[in-house]
Amino acid sequence: MSTATACVPVETYLNTVYRPDRDYVDGRLEKRHVGEFDHSKLQMAIARYIADRGEQFRVAVYPEIRVQVAPDRFRVADLCCVRRRPMSGIVTEPPVLVIEILSPRDTVPQTEDRIDDYLAMGVPFVWLIDPRNLDRAWIYEPGQPRRKVSDRVLIAGEIRVPLNELPGQRDFE
Question: What's the rounded mean pLDDT across residues 133-153?
Answer without folding.
Answer: 95
